[in-house]
Amino acid sequence: MQLLTDGVYRLQKATGANAYLVDTGDAAVVIDTGTPGGAAKLAAELREARGLPPVTDIVLTHYDPDHAGSAAALQRETGARVWIGRADAAVLRGETPPSTGFRRFLGRVYPKTEVPADLHELPDAAETEILPGLVAIPAPGHTDGHIVVEWRGVIFAGDAVRVSKGRLVQMPRLLISDKAQALATTELIASRRPRLVCPGHGAPGRLG
User: 13-62, pLDDT tens digit by residue?
Assistant: First the structure.
């Protein structure tokens, strides 16, 4: 694991997208899990880490398989609760189709993501404190139920934004469900003045 700042780590064995871990002191929280098939290496990385509390929670920023693909398998390894935005939970379960043609195409080409047991749904219009100080914030745009997670001034952004030269930039338009919401989410993240932004793709960075 790569230490980014106090209690915040970037997991090195995740595949497809970045995965992070927050050590709250009493519990460890994994944020995003990478693509299907990567859970064994991720679980081994967690087991090999020294001095970590048990993993009690897995938070998924959204349903795309490069972020949620290993959640069910990692849940079996750890017994952790799995959290995801309500609108994205419906897509993950297959109750609602993805909101972009590109994602619907990918859903026909690639295997369906395994759904974790007993998903905990986060409301689409209210912040939720998952553990003391660890807050899930609705951040739609990339997907309808996308969330970001904040912990002591660090924002785990999923695919809401990337960081480039001290600026927040969005993912390609092909991957955005609602451009207006995505722009509003970018403004929301900037307004919280994070000391560090940890994106789903690319390196974590600070805003200039």
Answer: 999 999 999 999 999 999 999 998 888 999 999 999 888 999 999 999 99
Q: Of 120, 122, 160, which Cα lies nearest the Cα of 139?
A: 160
pLDDT in tens, 83-128: 999 999 999 999 999 888 888 887 777 778 899 998 999 998 899 9
Supply 33's token pair. Answer: 């899990």
Tell me how far apart the alpha carbons of residues 20 and 14 are, in angstroms, rounded to a whole number: 9
- Full DSSP string of 113-126: PPPPTTPEEEPSSS
Q: Which residues lie below 8 Å from residue 73, measured CB to CB, with a gap of 6+? A: 36, 39, 40, 43, 114
What residues pair up with 148 in beta bridges, in sequence order? 137
* CA pair distance 169, 36, nearest whole angstrom: 27
Are the CB atoms for 89 and 119 separated by under 8 Å? yes
Q: Which residues pair with 163 in a beta bridge?
A: 168
Handedness of CA 2, 31, 101, 144 (dihedral sign): negative
